[in-house]
Amino acid sequence: MATHSLFLLPGDGIGVEVMGEVEKLVAWLNKEGKGDFSIDRGLVGGSAYDKHGAAISEDDMRKALAADAVIFGAVGGPKWDKVPYEVRPEAGLLRLRKDLQLFANLRPAICYPALAEASSLKRELVEGLDILIVRELTGGVYFGEPKEITDLGNGQKRAVDTQVYETYEIDRIVRVAFDLARTRGKKVHSADKKNVMKSGVLWDEVAQSVARDYSDVAFHHILADNAAMQLVRNPKQFDVMVTDNLFGDILSDAAAMLTGSLGMLPSASLGAPDANGRRKALYEPVHGSAPDIAGKGVANPIAMLASFAMALRYSFGLIELANKLEASIAAVLDDGLRTGDIAQGGKSVGTEEMGAAVLKKLAA
Ligand code: IPM
Ligand code: MG
């Protein structure tokens, strides 16, 4: 049996293409004896719906639960816009997050020096940017009950989503943020809307109390709307930002774009460590399935490859290899290689060429 089991869920659209580059990377690592990975593959999102009538099958859920790491591409596309809400492509991803109890979502936004010009902000604002957004992923308004639309019978309907957090959910995610801050800039911003929301009041109360256990890390409260504004005003003031599921969804897209392209950003979704120190984990690029460019071989595989680097780091303890893979990505960008999303109208290469270039650097 291989040392590390991977369960690949490419999903829909460009998810399939960028996952192809991970497959090549893993095959190479196995061949070179740099790792010992087994690979199994499943369906999620629209592709699972087409085959099973569900956004992920029970069989694939079992495989995901059993794997050391799930590597996820992207889900969704116009083809499935009209499928029932319960089986829409996103439901597969949300079920994976919930059933695997992946409460900690790490979304680093790093501006590669070579790409500072591709950002929508001025170079001096983003050059050297290194933010880590820690997003709560299994609670809040994404999963709170009730969640429904009721017909009021008078031509009106009433829609309810429920934002709900308990102390332990806030405590454990804020601790993840502080532990990570200790390994980097030693600064945590906690973003909520305590000026409007009860869940924000509790969020801040718990965050403040966790902060007292980390006197070596600077702690700042920030209102989520102000956080959005500061991200585009002066993003380098941030080191680690911890926030709830919905604010994290929004703020991480904003942070991602600062770096030049959504096509660059990886993420890790982690569960709590068990008695043996092993944690369930899913790794996925922050970008979506990009139906407009799907199937054309032009998608940027960097976010997917960088997500695999996070798997090497957080699931397999292969830190040196993870560092080397990330350095290979940076080196390829330094050489001037660009996919369409970061080419700014200049010359660009396709998915496979970019993937091959990264692999070549890694092998060098
Ligand atoms: C993300 C995505 C998902 C989310 C969607 C696809 C359900 O936007 O991972 O940020 O809202 O969490
Ligand atoms: Mg999102």
Total domains: 2
Arithmetic mean of pLDDT: 96
Q: Number of DSSP strands?
A: 12
Output the structural class. alpha/beta
Shape: globular
Which small molecules are bound?
Answer: 3-isopropylmalic acid, magnesium ion
CATH architecture of the largest domain: 3-Layer(aba) Sandwich
* Unreliable stretches covering 5 or more consecutive residues: none
Task: Kindly report how far apart the N and C termini lie.
Answer: 29 Å
Q: Reading side by side through the largest sheet, how are the strands ordered?
A: 2-1-3-12-11-4-5-10-8-9
Describe the structure.
This protein has helices at residues 14-31, 46-52, 58-66, 89-99, 123-126, 167-182, 198-211, 224-233, 245-258, 302-314, 319-334, 351-363, and strands at residues 4-11, 37-41, 69-74, 104-110, 130-136, 144-151, 157-162, 187-192, 218-223, 240-243, 266-270, 281-285. The two termini are 29 Å apart. Strand 6 and strand 7 form a beta hairpin. Helices cover 40% and strands 20% of the residues. It folds into two domains: 1-103 and 271-364, Isopropylmalate Dehydrogenase (3-Layer(aba) Sandwich); 106-263, Isopropylmalate Dehydrogenase (3-Layer(aba) Sandwich). The longest helix is centred in the N-terminal third of the chain and has 18 residues, at 14-31. It has 364 residues and is an alpha/beta fold. The protein has twelve helices and twelve strands. The strands form two sheets. The chain has a ten-stranded mixed β-sheet, sandwiched between helices. Strands 6-7 form a two-stranded antiparallel sheet. The mean pLDDT is 96. 3-isopropylmalic acid is lined by residues 90, 93-94, 249. Residues 249, 253 line the site of magnesium ion.
